[in-house]
Amino acid sequence: MKKKITLIIGFSLLFILLYLVFAGKPLNKEYHFNPEWKINVSNPTIQKASPGDKIIPFRLGKNSGYFTPEGKIVTYKMAPDKASFSDNYFAVYDSNATQVQFYSNDGTEQGILQSDGYPYFCEDNIFVMLPGGSSFSKCDETGMPQWTWYGSIPLTTFAVKKDFTAAGFIDGSIKLFDNRTGEVILEFSPGGSDYPCIYGLDITDDGQYIACLCGQDRQRFVLAKRENIQTKILFHTFISDETKTRSFVYWTKNQDKVLYNTKNNVGIYDMKDGSHTVIKCQSHIIDVAETDSLLFLLEKSQNNYSVDVIEKTNTHTGHFDFTANNAFIKTYDNALFLGRDANISKIQVSRK
Predict the structure, then answer these.
(1) Phi-psi domain of 286 (left: phi exceeds 0; alpha: psi -120 through 50; beta: other)
(2) Are the C-beta atoms of residues 275 and 312 closer than 8 Å to each other?
(3) What is the distance between the alpha carbons of residues 86 and 98, in angstroms, rounded to a whole number?
(4) pLDDT value, residue 194
(5) How far apart are CA 323 and CA 154, in angstroms?
(6) Which residue of 46, 48, 57, 125 could cross-link 85, Cys pair, CB 3.0 to 4.6 Å?
C-alpha cells in the first residue's frame, strides 16, 4: 500500500512538472489585422504632403492620384480613359496617346512624351510603348527618347527594374536590355513547349536571374541565371493547370523568392533552399504586395476579388473576399492599404 501511494505521488509530481514546463511556453503568435482609417476619394480635399512623407499611387475607376499612409490625398486627377502611375510619375491620356503630358507625383508638370504611344512608368523609369505593339522607347525625365527598340514580333510581357528591362515576346523569346544604353545584353528562348509564348516574366534587380511562365501544351515555369551572354536553367517545372492569359510573375523585394500564377494555383520557388511550393489560389492574380513577413495576393474574377495572405515561410495564412468594380492593394511598413471602388482603407498588421 505504501509503495502504491509513493507511485501515485511520483506520477502526480511528474504531471505537475510537465504541466508547468509546457504551460509556461508562450502560445503561437497570430496575425492581427486592425482597421485604422477609411477615406473616400471621389471628391477629396487635397492636402499638402509634409517633408519626408511616403507618397503612394492609386487608381480606382476614374479616380486617381497619390495618398500618404496617414490618409491624406496629396494629388488627385480624374482619369476617364487610360492612365499610368508609378511612385514618381503619372499620365492620364486617351486612345490616341500623342504628345502625352506627364506629371510628377505632386501634380506638377514634368514634361511631354515626344514619342507617340502608351506611357509606362516604373518608379523613375519612363517608357513609351509604340504603336504596333512590338517596339518601345526609353525616355528621360523630360520625355525625350534616350533610345528605341524597333521590333517586328509582338510584345507579351514587360519587366522593368532600375538598371535592366526584360521583354517577352509572342514567339517565346526573351530579351534583356541595359536601361542606360538600350543594348540587348541577353537573348534566349526557354522552349520546351509545343507552342512558344511568354505569358509572365520578371527579373531580379541586378538582372542576374530571369523567371518566366512560357508556352502552351507542356507549359513551363522556368528560372534561369545569366552567365555573361548565355543563360543557365536553374529550375523548371511543367504546369498541370495551364493558363492562356497573361500571368503574374514576381520577385520578392529581398529577391529570395519568386512567385508565378497559373490557372488555379500560385507557385513559389525559394532561392535559399531550392524548394518549390504550390498553393491553391482563388482566381487570377492581378497584383502582389508584401510586408516584412507576409505576401498579399490580389485576385480577380469579374467583380469578385480575393486577397490571399501567405507567410514568407510559404504557408497559406488565410484570405478574404469582396465584390467591387475596381480594387488595388499596397503596403508600407506593416500596413496594408486596400482600395475598393471609391474608398481606401488602412489596415495595420501586427503579430502577437
Answers:
(1) alpha
(2) no
(3) 20
(4) 87
(5) 34
(6) 57
Average pLDDT score, the chain: 89
List, for the chain, all residue ranges whose pLDDT scores fall below the cut of 50: 1-11, 13-25, 27
Rounded Cα–Cα distance for residues 157 and 173 (Å): 11
Q: What confidence score (pLDDT) does residue 81 get?
A: 84
Chain position carrying cell 475598393: 340
Determine whether 198 is exposed, middle or buried from the number of CB atoms within 10 Å of its CB (0-12, 13-18, 19+): buried
The grid cell for 4 is 502504491
Residues 36, 342, 295, 214: what is their CA dihedral angle, to the nearest 10 degrees? 180
In this prediction the pTM is: 0.87
The three three-digit cell numbers of residue 77, written as one number: 486627377
Element (H, E) at 21: helix 2-23
Question: Using CA of residue 173, residue 95, residue 329, residue 68, what is the dihedral sign?
Answer: positive
Determine contact, residues 90/102, Cβ cutoff 8 Å.
yes
Under a CB-based contact definition with an 8 Å cutoff, are residues 223 and 236 in contact?
Answer: yes
pLDDT of residue 28: 64
